[in-house]
Amino acid sequence: MREIQYEIVKEIAVLSTGDSGYTKEINLISWNGKEPKYDIRSFSPNREKCGKGITLNADEAAALLKALQKELNSED
């Protein structure tokens, strides 16, 4: 099985930190040398391991932002 390679192009935010030290992050990541995408997933404290996550292109990220803003504003 081929090893998956990634490069964190831009660190955007740590969303949370668990008791184990794993962090849930949103970053701009290039997977296997491809165009960077927005990525939400958990990482071990030294980033040697990462959990399952979701990648979004710019249009998908914008749609998610719009949907979250609408949802969060409706809670007022």
How would you characterize the overall build of this protein?
This is Transcriptional coactivator p15 (PC4) C-terminal domain-containing protein. Residues 22-67 form the Transcriptional coactivator p15 (PC4) C-terminal domain. It comes from Acetivibrio ethanolgignens. GO terms for molecular function: DNA binding. This protein has a single domain, classed as Transcriptional Co-activator pc4, Chain A, CATH 2.30.31. It is built from one helix and four strands, in the order ββββα. It has one helix at 58-74, and strands at 6-17, 23-31, 37-43, 50-56. A hairpin with a 5-residue loop joins strand 1 and strand 2 (23-31). The protein starts with 5 loop residues before the first strand and ends with a helix.
Please specify the SSE layout and strand pairing.
Blueprint: E1 6-17, E2 23-31, E3 37-43, E4 50-56, H1 58-74
Key traits:
1 helix, PC4-like, 76 residues, Transcriptional Co-activator pc4, Chain A, alpha+beta, single chain, 22% helix, DNA binding
Helix content: 10-25%
CATH architectural label: Roll
Average pLDDT reading: 94
User: Which segments are poorly predicted (pLDDT under 50) over 5 or more consecutive residues?
Assistant: none
How much β-strand is present in the residues?
over 45%
| SS-based class | alpha+beta
Largest beta sheet: strand ordering: 1-2-3-4
The number of E-state strands comes to 4
CATH fold label: Transcriptional Co-activator pc4, Chain A
Determine the N-to-C terminus distance: 49 Å
Largest sheet: 4 strands, antiparallel
Order of helices and strands: EEEEH
Count of DSSP H/I helices: 1
Q: Which CATH class is shown?
A: Mainly Beta
Shape: flat
> What radius of gyration results from the CA coordinates?
14 Å
Instruction: Tell me the domain tally.
Output: 1
